Amino acid sequence: MVEIRDVMRKSELFADLPVSMLDRVAEAAHYRVFERGELAFYQGDVAHSWLVVGSGRMRLVQHTVDGKEVTVAIFVPGDPVGIVVAIMGEEYPGSAEALETSEIIILPGELLWQLIHEHAALGVRILKIVSARLHDAYNQIRELSAERVQRRIARSMLRLADKVGIKESGGVIRLDIPLSRQDLAQMNGTTLETVSRTLAAWERSGIVSAGREHVTILKQDDLVTIAEDLFPARSA
Amino acid sequence: MVEIRDVMRKSELFADLPVSMLDRVAEAAHYRVFERGELAFYQGDVAHSWLVVGSGRMRLVQHTVDGKEVTVAIFVPGDPVGIVVAIMGEEYPGSAEALETSEIIILPGELLWQLIHEHAALGVRILKIVSARLHDAYNQIRELSAERVQRRIARSMLRLADKVGIKESGGVIRLDIPLSRQDLAQMNGTTLETVSRTLAAWERSGIVSAGREHVTILKQDDLVTIAEDLFPARSA
DNA sequence: CGGCACGTTGAAGGGCTTCAAGCTCTGTGG
DNA sequence: CCACAGAGCTTGAAGCCCTTCAACGTGCCG
After folding, report:
1. How far apart are CA B194 and CA B149, in angstroms?
2. Which residues fall inside 7 Å of strand C, measured at CB?
3. Angstrom distance (rounded) from CA A177 to CA A57
C-alpha cells in the first residue's frame, strides 16, 4: 500500500511545496483501490473531487453517441486526474477507468481552490501540467487528422514507452501496462483487427514482440522511422 | 482601431480584475495588425510573449512532417493565445495565423508570471480558460477517432456557429469568417474535395448555403441531427 | 478442462483520398 | 472597361486503406 505523503513527494504537482500545505492535503485525502475496469468518476458528472494516481494506471475515456469508447489520456503514478474541473466544479470531460489494480488518492476540489489562493505557486504548477496535456492533445489531433493508422500506432507506442516503458538489455523496451489490441485501437481511432495486422507485420520485421495484452519494443529506431519518416504507407 | 483597455474589459481573462493590475498590463502591451495569412508566432519557438485577439480571427495551426497543415483551434476577439507557454517559457504548440486582418495585442509572458503570484485569482482565471480548451481538444480527439467525416464537418460548423455565428432572420446563421473548403478540410482531417461534395449535398437538401469562402447555416436542426444522431452514413 | 476473452486471418466492400480536368468567381492591370 | 490570371471550387473516375463481418485459433483462469 502506497503512503499518501510518499505519493505527494514524488508528484510533479506537490514536490517542494511547504510542509504545512502538504499536511492539509494529506489530512483531506481518502484512499481507495480500484480494480481493473472500475470507474473512479463518470463523464458528465459534476466534479467535486479529483484524484492522484498512487500506483497502477488509469485512463480517461470518452464515450461516443453510438457506444464506442475512445481513450483520450493515460495516467501513471503521480499524475493528477480531473484536477481542473474539480477546482471549478465543472463536469468531468470523460470517465476515469483503472487499467489495472490501482491505488488512488481522492481529494476534494474545494481545498485546492483555497490553497491556490493562499499559494499562487501551486496554481502555476497546475497550469504547467494542464498545459502539457493540452500540448499532447493538440499533437494527437494533428496525428488523427493527417496521419495514417500505422504511423499513429507507432507514435502511441513510443509515447507509451516514455510513460510506462521499462528498459531491458539491448535497447529493448517493455511496456509495463496491460495493453490489448482493443486498447491500442481505442487510443488510435482504429479497430482491433487493424492493430492486430499491424503488430503482426512489425513482429515479422522484428520491430516488436507482442503477446496477449502485452507489447515489447525491440527496435525503437525502426518504430521512430515509421512514426516520423515520410514513406507513403507501404506495407511491411 | 481597438482600445487595449476595451479589449481587456471584454475579455474573459481580465474582466473584473483590479484596475491597478489592468494598468500594468496595458502599459506592457504592444499593438500590431496582422494581415490574412501572416503568422504571429511559429510552432516550436520559445514563447516569450502571448497575444490577445483585439479584432479579427486567428487560428492555431500545426504542421505535419509531410507538409500538411492542421487547424487545432480558432480564436476570436478577447481570446488569449499562447498564454500558458509564455508564462512558462515553453515552446509554442503550433503557429498562430491570422484568418483575416486582425488587431493583436502582444504581451510579455514574464509580467503574467509576476501578476499570478500577486493575485492568485488571475491564475484560476487562466486555469479555467485552459481547462475549457483541453475539454474541447478531448472532444475533438473523440470525434476524429470514432466519427465519420460528414459528422465531423457538421460538428465543426456548429462550433463555428457558436464562435462566430451571426443570427439572421428565420433561424439562419451566417458564419462570419472567411471559410474556404480547404479551411474546413484542415479543421476536420479531410480533403477539400470531400468537403466540397458534402457541402454540395447539404445545399441540395437546403441545410446550408455555401459560397466562395463563406457558409450560411439554413437549418441548424438538421445539422444537429447529422452531428448527433445515429445514422450509418447515408448520403443525402 | 471447459468457457470466454483475446487474438488471428480472410474476404468483401465502402468511405475517402488522390489524381485530373475544367469551371467560376474576384481582383487587377492594361 | 474588359480581359486575363489565379485562387477557389466542382465533378468525375480510379483505387486503396481501412472497416466490417465472420470464422476460427489460443491461452488464461476458475
Report:
1. 8
2. A 180-182, 192-193, 196-197, 199-200, 210, 212-213; B 148-150, 189-191, 193-194, 197, 211-212, 233, 235
3. 8
In whole angstroms, what is the distance from residue A18 CA to residue A41 CA? 29
Closest CA to B64 of A137, A145, A233, A190: A145
> In this predicted model, what pLDDT tens digit does every residue of A115-170 receive, in sequence order?
998 888 899 999 999 999 999 999 999 999 989 999 999 999 999 999 999 999 88
Which of A78, A47, A77, A43 is closest to A60 using CA atoms? A43
Calculate the CA dihedral of residues B26, B31, B37, B43 and round it to 10 degrees: -50
Nearest nt to the A203 alpha carbon by C1': C8
- The model scores a pTM over 0.85: yes
| Cell 511559429, residue located | B42
Measured between its terminal Cα atoms, the distance across chain B in Å is 45
Greatest alpha-carbon pair distance for chain B in Å reads 58
Q: Give first-to-last CA distance, chain A, whole Å.
A: 45
- Compute the distance between CA of residue B49 and CA of residue A114 in angstroms, rounded to an integer: 29
Q: Name the helix (H) or strand (E) containing A52.
A: strand A49-55
C-alpha cell, B35? 494581415
A229 contacts in chain B (CB < 8 Å)? 65
Q: Assign A230 a pLDDT band (cuts: 50, 70, 90).
A: low
A163 CA to C10 C1', in Å? 36
Model confidence pLDDT, tens digit, residues A168-201: 988 999 999 999 999 999 999 999 999 999 999 9
* Alpha helices, DSSP H, located in B147-191: 149-164, 181-188
